[in-house]
Amino acid sequence: MKVLYFAELKEILNQSSEEIDTQKTMTVQEFEAYLFEQHPEIESKKFQVAVNEEFVRKDDIVQPQDTVALIPPVSGG
């Protein structure tokens, strides 16, 4: 599974993407729990999850071959 990080998350983790080796299907909520175990420094951050370029809900499914993007809220003026 490829995970893409944007904006603040990219800066905190000092990487724009990573490969996660998982062979199991999981919900978005389970994926987030796994991610927070690996990167506790982003647990308090707000972001939306997109799977294969579509925003998803917590109960949607993530497959091992998917691309998951974590997109923080955008501010501007």
Account of the protein in words:
The protein is α+β, with helices and mostly antiparallel strands and 77 residues long. It has one domain (1-69): Ubiquitin-like (UB roll). The chain is 23% helix and 29% strand. It is globular, with a radius of gyration of 12 Å. The model has no long low-confidence stretch (mean pLDDT 94).
Concise account of the structure shown:
The protein is α+β, with helices and mostly antiparallel strands and 77 residues long. It has helices at 7-13, 28-38; strands spanning 2-5, 17-19, 26-27, 48-51, 54-55, 61-62, 67-71. The relative contact order is 0.31.
Key traits:
single chain, 77 residues, alpha+beta, Ubiquitin-like (UB roll), five-stranded mixed beta sheet, 2 helices
Tell me, rounded to a whole number, the average pLDDT. Answer: 94
**End-to-end span in angstroms?**
35 Å
Q: State the share of residues found in helices, binned by percent.
A: 10-25%
- Class inferred from helices and paired strands: alpha+beta
* Helical stretch tally: 2
Largest sheet: 5 strands, mixed
Whole-angstrom Rg: 12 Å
Shape: globular
CATH first level: which class? Alpha Beta
Order of strands in the sheet with most strands:
2-1-7-4-5
| CATH topology-level name | Ubiquitin-like (UB roll)
Order of helices and strands: EHEEHEEEE
Which architecture name does CATH use? Roll
For CATH, the homologous superfamily is named as: Beta-grasp domain
Q: What is the β-strand count?
A: 7
In the predicted model, the low-confidence regions spanning at least 5 consecutive residues are none
Number of spatially distinct domains: 1
Pfam families: ThiS (PF02597)
Family: Belongs to the MoaD family.
Keywords: Molybdenum cofactor biosynthesis, Nucleotide-binding
GO molecular function: nucleotide binding
